[in-house]
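HOLO CASE FILE
Compound: zinc ion
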Amino acid sequence: MNSDLALFLKSSEEILGGENVLSIRNQGLSNILKFSVDWRKKFFGKPLAVCFPNSSSQVSELVKLADKFNVPLIAQGGNTGLSGGATPSNDISQVVISMSRMNSIRSIDIVNKSLTVESGCSLRKLQDFAKNSSLLFPLDISSREDATIGGILATNAGGLSVLRYGSARDLCFGLEVVLSDGKIWNGLKSLKKDNSGYSLKNLFIGSEGTLGIITAASMCLYSEVLDRETYFVITRDITATVAVYNELQKIVNDNLTAFEFMSSDAIDLVMRYFPNRVPNFIGNIKSKIISIVELPRTNLYKDECLTERFEQLISSGIVFKWGFCKNKQATKLWALREAITYASAENGQQVKNDLSLPRSSISDFVTSVRKSILPKYPRVSLINFGHIGDGNLHFNVSPFFNEAFQKKEDRWKAHEVFLKKYEEKIRKDINDLVVDFSGSVSAEHGIGQLRREENIRLKSDVEINLMRGIKQYFDPKGIMNPGKLI
Ligand code: 2HG
Ligand code: ZN
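Model generated. Tokens follow.
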């Protein structure tokens, strides 16, 4: 270890107390493994240490030290990201700042419908806290137990209710951020409108810890939706799915709170690893697409209008089957939807794609991939699912299931061999098409390490140079999460 790193470690122990600094030298890699590897087990790092500050001023002290001794810092929340954005490098030179001890909710303002929360607070804790005040924090993702609000803001996460309430960015009033020289920017106002210059908070949101460390946020709350209606809709293909989405939004005055789709390949995967998560009432959906449609129960439109429209869509061949879900059925349907990522993790690595496309192009895009990209490769399954209303497809490409690989270990190995050979090529082919269709290669998972090169390849020089200029201004020494995003 060089002397700067040793000095950083010694001083950070003085600031935080020895028990709040775990180092690879003292504790060994196995004791800091959960901070060193990403959720998907795709990126493996070896940090020098993991520090656990409990206040913004402790974070500020640590950043001042990092600035002095040139030590790169990786802020980490629940480590649930899917792009390797919070995984350190593997050369024992970087320090993970775990925000786990900074998890309190500082205040709530019921009249203003806002709350101020520390960045290490889990999404579930925040949601429950809002609910206890009869309010709703609407952002929702399946990793809610572990994902933290800091990570959610750093990646501008989206999830299951973006359609009605927007992404993390749309739910954030203001931020408190520790800058790369250790100064604290307090931008925690809870204003709906603020036109007093550049929107600094919007620079930090989605910057994946490359510009500063978010230590607290002021977030926006909504009224609780006490009664929701949930339907399932089965369609023959993605073209029909988009058509149903458009038709239903017309009837309910754009009031859908969710419209999530799952291809049959995605459901097959859940069937294989978590068969109890596939409810019987959806029946056989071979080669079809099932969507979950959710809306608040209000008197703005009548249930009969929806029923009538569903029946017309059946007559015109757009909808294959639909049904109203009672409470328990709705819960089961959501459990199926949320199981896809976990079933994927059981199956083995995939070429993960988090695409954003204009809704009007989704159908042509999927057809083009099937026609001109997939035939170039060995047989694959397209684990296509996600947030159709947002134009966001989780368009994951998985090696076709081989019955010979029943053991997880063997399957994982076979997937690794496939990915080594084809991952980059498949991703490039798909991304080129995404650009042709005026889409984006990241909708809600961020860039991290996974898409860094591709993002740089695909953006114009003008855009990349603007981003580099911003990075240079905020982090001249390059100590904020280097090697990610830009
Ligand atoms: C979801 O929508 C998440 O469930 C995860 O964004 C997507 O596993 C994925 O690719
Ligand atoms: Zn998603």
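CASE NOTES: The chain has four domains: 3-98, 105-223, 227-264+277-326, 348-445. Residues 303 and 385 are 27 Å apart (CA to CA).
CLOSED: yes
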